[in-house]
């Protein structure tokens, strides 16, 4: 079964390759190869770590909720709110990077 870790790692690798190639082709072919490899490795690592956090944190919160019901519920919703905030921050950073690269000579 494919979990969120594998999905996010695959998306990170894909986005890293695309972004590295896109940025690198404006510089030179050598920079394109280096940037795409670096982007794939970094994207894969970040995606894998994000997937692991998304898998393990709700389990830990569920265990904590059994002993501390109200505090566990607050932590559960706070975790998902932080995940949403992180997704918005990554989207904004990617959007800013893309906009910056379009105007790059």
Report on the architecture of this protein.
The protein is mainly alpha-helical and 105 residues long. It has one domain. Helix 1 packs antiparallel against helix 2 and helix 2 runs antiparallel to helix 3. It is elongated.
Main sheet summary: none
Shape, per Cα inertia axes? elongated
How many angstroms does the end-to-end distance come to?
A: 45 Å
List segments where confidence is low: pLDDT < 50 over at least 5 consecutive residues.
Answer: none
Strand percent estimate: under 5%
Relevant terms:
3 helices; 105 residues
Break the fold down into its secondary structure elements and pairings.
Blueprint: H1 4-25, H2 29-67, H3 69-102
Helix pairs in contact: 1-2, 2-3
Short note summarizing the structure:
The chain has helices spanning 4-25, 29-67, 69-102. With 105 residues, the protein is mainly α.
């Amino acid at each position: 079964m494919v979990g969120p870790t594998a999905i996010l790692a695959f998306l990170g690798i894909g986005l890293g390759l695309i972004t590295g190639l896109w940025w690198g082709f404006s510089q030179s072919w050598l920079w394109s190869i280096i940037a795409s490899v670096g982007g794939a490795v970094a994207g894969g690592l970040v995606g894998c770590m994000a997937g692991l956090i998304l898998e393990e944190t709700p389990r830990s919160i569920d265990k904590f909720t059994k002993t501390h019901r109200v505090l566990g519920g607050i932590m559960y919703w706070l975790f998902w709110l932080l995940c949403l905030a992180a997704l918005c921050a990554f989207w904004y950073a990617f959007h800013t990077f893309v906009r910056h690269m379009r105007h790059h000579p």
